[in-house]
Amino acid sequence: MLRTGLAVLAVSCLSATAMADDDRGFEFRLGATAHDLSDHVEDGPNITADILFPSPDFLAIIWSPRPYVYGSFNTNGLTNFGAAGLAWNWEFAEGWNLEIREGLSYNDGVVDIDPNSPPGDPTRIRLATTRALMGNEILFHTALGLDYDLTETWSVGAYYEHISHGQILASGRNQALDNVGIRFGYRFGQ
Fold first, then answer.
1. Local structure of 75: helix, strand or coil
2. Nearest 10 degrees: Cα torsion 121, 131, 5, 21
3. For strand 96-107 and strand 138-149, is the pairing parallel, antiparallel, or unpaired?
4. Helix (H, G, I), strand (E, B) or coil at 95
5. Residue 85 pLDDT more than 90?
6. What are phi and psi of 78, to 5 degrees?
7. Residue 23 pLDDT
8. What beta strand segments (E) does the chain contain?
């Protein structure tokens, strides 16, 4: 988590002027991700929906990140989550944008196996072999995306996201989730 924070700070410092000129309005994104790439315990793609808001003036001191609200819904009925936080955008070449996100998420996954259940318990075995054990319902949400502006209003992109408690929001289990996906975006009022 510290490395991610330092990366956000470094990219933010290098691109402060580019981000300060970002006049993006509301943006809606729809996408799909490959689910649980690190442990491969849970499967099935996730459908994602995302709303980004214009950066309020008071966030100019931290390079004008855009607030976001995000949902990720597993098509196999496994762990779903929602997140909210801040997204920093940096246009590094004509039409190409790097986005870094930091936020908090809430998931409906399995926190842990009941420590009082016997080792041979069928429920314990099923949970250990088919579900990511998240460690907590509240987790950090970190994402890194690369987007290309197709037009003034439409974009397409690829991104990686990670949700985890990092032994900060909880202790013990921390299998986390790593997802990689594609997304299409539409900006309103452009």
1. coil
2. -160
3. antiparallel
4. coil
5. yes
6. -95, -145
7. 65
8. 27-34, 46-52, 66-74, 81-93, 96-107, 138-149, 154-164, 177-187
